[in-house]
Records
---
Amino acid sequence: MIDTTIKIQHLSAAYQGKTALKDIDVAIKPQNITGIIGPNGAGKSTFMKALLGLVPNTSGEIVFGGKAIREVRKKIAYVEQRSELDLSFPIDVFGVVLLGTYPSLRLGQRPGKKEKEHAIQALEKVGMSNYAKRQISELSGGQLQRVFIARALAQGAEWIFLDEPFVGIDAVSEKKIFSILKELKEEGKTLLIVHHDLHKVEAYFDEVILLNQELIAAGPVSEIFTAENLQRAYGEIISQLKGAENK
Ligand code: ADP
Ligand code: MG
């Protein structure tokens, strides 16, 4: 099995001269589910995008299993925050999953029998085979997330990046999706998930990266997810929550 550790050194990112991430040193462990946690605007999505080379103004060093991103790009799947997607695009579920196979095709080559077989298997894995012909605009949030995970599987990704996959999804779907993600981890995938709801953090993640522009803390959830660290990451907000509880 290849080493899928992600090593990040001195990562900084900015938008139009305004700092979003400041000098972050952290490693993401292979075959784990790592949560990126922090308040709104903390830079969680920016962190994920910077790892993918999608933030123009980024500095620092990022290494995927000893390699630069350009060497491993095909093996990284990214599901962006749903609010940033255009879901009116006319494409059916099978078409979306098949898109996952495109990075492995030669220029101009169309998906063939092998690629279609991968897409069918991926849909089965997430329990969405019966929806293959459905337009994506007709899916619930939970079904849509499952389809995007299937696309990542059809891609044969080793790294799976999900930005807020549980937002706007009912509890039953969330549970189902999480059990799929856990299965993927057990098969050796490395998962990185942006998450802002603090309730499920201990249940979901092996490791957490607590962010608020700077790295607040990172490591095993049992060591890092402490009141003190949360206070440092969330400041005011947590004190307000505590205040509300006491009333
Ligand atoms: P989070 O995902 O933790 O809510 P983001 O990474 O989306 O935070 O944003 C971090 C900061 O960068 C915020 O202040 C946000 O307004 C700013 N920002 C994010 N994307 C852009 C962009 N494309 N252009 C300018 N500013 C941005
Ligand atoms: Mg975000």
---
Amino acid sequence: MRWTQTLIPTLRESPSDAEILSHQLLLRAGIIRKLAAGLYNFMPLGIRSLHKIQKIIREEMDRSGALEILMPALQPPEIWQASGRYEAAADTLFKVNDHSKREWVLGPTHEEVVSTLAAGEINSYRQLPINLYQIQTKFRDEIRPRFGLMRAREFIMKDAYSFDKDDVASMSSYRKMYDTYVRIFRRCGLKAFPVEADAGVMGGKHTHEFVVPADTGECEIAFCDSCGYAANVEKADSALQKTYSQNEASTELFETPGVKTIESLSKPPYSIPASQQIKTLVFIAEDKPVILLLRGDYQLNEAKLAGLLGTVIFRPATDEEVFNLLKAHVGSLGAVGIKQVPVYADLLLEGATDMVTGANKDGFHIRHVNMSRDIPQAQFVSIRTVKNGESCVKCGKPLSIRNAIEVGQVFKLGTKYSVALGACYSDEKGEQKPCVMGCYGIGVTRTLQAVIEQNFDKDGISWPISVAPYHICVTPLNVAPESEPMKWAERYYAELSSAGIEVLLDDRDERPGVKFKDSELIGIPIRLSIGEKSLAKGVVELKRRNGELVALKPEDAVAEAIKWVQEELNKLS
Ligand code: ATP
Ligand code: MG
């Protein structure tokens, strides 16, 4: 492709609404353009990289035996009602009405559609296992679309759905997708880590996210550098470090006028460390109250709570609800003597003694609380969010919490959707059984940006060659048709192209500085530049995006460039 014949609208300055570097580079390199918040046009360079990512995904999915299909983006709401997600996912569902005012859902994902499809097409165990996938546009009404392609309202996803006869077979489909994802991200030049994750609204029990560590990432991951344990903080656990004194003193009421927070109780005159306080939270889960107890220095983990309660429909109780239940206001709440409401306490509190908690009497707390003696009704569960520096559950070494970008996720779903939508098969004995499902997503457009997030420097993008829009940029420094540099450039363009190398010929009549800056900004992995001065010395210059300049005889440049491209491609094949 000739630069003058395509559309590469590079920008010198970053648009002010691009908060993170990868987003700025997408705009500055002319890869995407914004239509509205969370909606982007893919420009010619962008679509080339996107197609390459899609090609890698297709090759690896096909290699795994999965079958490509394409499902409609527009979906009837009835199937969402049948799965229960019309309510549970209501916040992010885009809905539209047709001319007769009938409502439709714009698909944020396709478990419901694929299960309906399977209900019609899968009848017998002989058809299993089967894995159906598509690459398709998804719609989500994100509360805060931001960071460019990272969190968009409309984005491209690869989604796959496996159907198996039982759990064991489903686990093997899951493993196969897990391995496929490892290969896909490696081939895209992305260092993505599989981490244990929380199943959230999806149902399912077993799930891994593939994440790319990045300061700008929106998920937090607990990593153990020592043994490799890695889990989303929504799911992560740590080894319990309980250092409670064995104080057997009886409980004692004491006055705490005006004290409403853990922090104020930790200051003089009380000076009770947060780790010696019990934090009492009241939540309403599907209309019923529950009391949650955490150590004062920990935060509630809502994802773990959802797993515990088996629902995502819960919220903190209002002040009025709290008062009606416990006869005290927030700040003086506790669970001593509470029988009428289920009480869940975080595992760290198991066996705790000499703790301080609210007395359910405004302006009073209780000290010397012994969990097993004074709150015996509590059930111990993991509901806290782990913190930086806690000990790894697997090896005991310190965990570090880092931000990361989720690029993909694999789920073992079980039979939630197959039961709800009738995706059943008849087994060897002729008995009807629900298919055991798995689902597997990759954010294709998010992956494109994640590749940039991991591959850039002060001059711009540095594409891994497997997903670069072009392999090589041929840069004549004089573009007059009869000039020596242009004659060589035309020859290189023709010869490299016919060898299957993807060439961008920078035929713009611009200063060398502008051309070099632009080719670095758009991140083409290799540049071959031809200037009059160097030709006079009998050389042209070949340079990797991150490497040294190599001077070559003009007639050797094509063979050398092909070798470099092949070397780079082989690294990622
Ligand atoms: P997130 O937690 O980031 O909202 P998710 O867990 O809801 O993502 P999934 O339902 O697992 O997303 O979707 C599969 C993949 O689609 C994700 O791993 C991610 O790469 C991508 N994805 C999800 N939401 C968006 C979005 N709003 N914009 C771009 N990509 C997205
Ligand atoms: Mg996910």
